[in-house]
Design goal:
Number of helices: 0
Strand content: over 45%
Number of strands: 11
Largest sheet: 7 strands, mixed
Low-confidence stretches: none
Helix content: under 10%
Distance between the termini: 40 Å
Oligomer: single chain
Order of helices and strands: EEEEEEEEEEE
């Protein structure tokens, strides 16, 4: 019944933009902190950005700060990641995470490839 589904990934040229979405259902989305993680080939999973339940606080990895923007709509039960000025180093599978009081839900991921 719990579903966390990412979408919006794809192939984009360096300098381009993508907007990822994470649609959640089966739990009380509005009380969960939400995060985007990514995992590139040969690298460990890393936290990209996070946003608290009320959307008044967010954090970003240094590598994406100033280029990516995390947001959420609690009415729509959806989290977003606007990615601008994309670099080849951003190539990874991007995962949506929901967390509340030690409970974690993960999506299956969406592939982002930045290449010429």
């Amino acid at each position: 019944q719990v579903h966390v589904v990412e979408s919006g990934g794809g192939l984009v040229q360096p300098g381009g933009s993508l907007r990822l979405s994470c649609a959640a259902s089966g739990f009380t989305f509005s009380v969960y902190a939400m995060s985007w993680y990514r995992q590139a080939p040969g690298k460990e999973r890393e936290l990209v950005a996070s946003i608290n339940s009320t959307a008044d606080s967010s954090n970003y990895a240094d590598s994406v700060k100033g280029r990516f923007t995390i947001s959420r709509g609690n009415v729509k039960n959806t989290m977003y990641l606007q990615m601008n000025s994309l670099k080849p180093e951003d190539t990874a599978v991007y995962y949506c995470n929901a967390r509340h009081r030690g409970t974690n839900y993960w999506g299956q991921g969406t592939q982002v490839t930045v290449s010429s």
